[in-house]
Amino acid sequence: MIRAEGLEKRYGRKRVLRGVDLAVGRGELLLVTGPNGSGKTTLLRVCAGLALPSAGSLEVEVDRSRLGYLGHEALLYRELTALENLDLYGRLYRVPERRERIGMLLERFGLWDARGERVGSYSRGMTQRLALCRVLLHDPELVILDEPYTALDADAAELLDRELAGLVEGRAILVSTHDPARVEPLATGRLALA
């Protein structure tokens, strides 16, 4: 679903990515690791189509409407409730039976009781769980997660572990995390950036 050869990204004179090669197919999870500043976030943004590579080739065989991306920003409207946010995204992605899907995700991620509260009143961990609901709402074929465990408590992190295990089958997944041991059992490949 994603193939890159010699991928590079520069910001002015600063080279962030150097000659990155990767291939991720359906049913595979690629774990992207490296220290801060190694280009993990930039690589995931390029793969998601949010930044253009400076050199090399990148082929993403998935329509952008079938991509689920979680970055450092939750991409949620703070003045809307959880239900209103997910309903908006459900309409944008034309999710069939979206109300049922929204309810199922909110229940699964432990947010059902807070569904009518404005996102601005949520803790950081609750916001991260809702952002994960947003990412999964339209049942994407390609899932790109940049530090998905950020602000999650132990129960929510275990829930995400189970979700990832269930998502691998039939999807391509890229995950960047500072806690690679969590994801390694599911990973079919690893890309270490320096």
Question: How would you concisely characterize the structure shown here?
Answer:
This protein has 194 residues and is of the alpha/beta class. It is built from six helices and eight strands, in the order βββαββαααβαβαβ.
Report on this structure.
This protein is an alpha/beta fold and 194 residues long. It has 2 domains: 1-62 and 172-194, Rossmann fold (3-Layer(aba) Sandwich); 64-140, Rossmann fold, CATH 3.40.50. 32% of the residues lie in helices and 26% in strands. It is built from 6 helices and 8 strands, in the order βββαββαααβαβαβ. It has helices at 40-47, 82-92, 98-108, 124-136, 154-168, 180-183, and strands spanning 2-11, 14-24, 28-33, 55-60, 67-70, 142-146, 172-176, 189-192. The strands form 2 sheets. Strands 5-6-7-3-8 form a 5-stranded parallel beta sheet, sandwiched between helices. A 3-stranded antiparallel beta sheet has the order 2-1-4, with helices on one face. β6, α5 and β7 (172-176) form a beta-alpha-beta unit. α2 (82-92) packs across α3 (98-108). The longest helix has 15 residues, at 154-168. It is globular, with a radius of gyration of 17 Å. The mean pLDDT is 96.
Please provide the ordered H/E string of secondary-structure elements.
EEEHEEHHHEHEHE
CATH homologous superfamily designation of the largest domain: P-loop containing nucleotide triphosphate hydrolases
Q: Please state the average pLDDT score.
A: 96
Through-space gap between termini: 24 Å
What is the CATH architecture assignment of the largest domain? 3-Layer(aba) Sandwich
Domains (count): 2
Overall radius of gyration: 17 Å
Helix count, per DSSP? 6
CATH fold category name of the largest domain:
Rossmann fold
Beta-strand proportion: 25-35%
Structural class, from helix and strand content?
alpha/beta
- Strand order across the largest sheet: 5-6-7-3-8
- Could you describe the largest sheet, including whether it forms a barrel? 5 strands, parallel
What percent of the residues sit in helical stretches (DSSP H or I)? 25-40%
CATH top level of the largest domain is: Alpha Beta
Number of strands: 8
Unreliable runs, pLDDT <50, ≥5 residues? none
Q: Overall 3D geometry?
A: globular
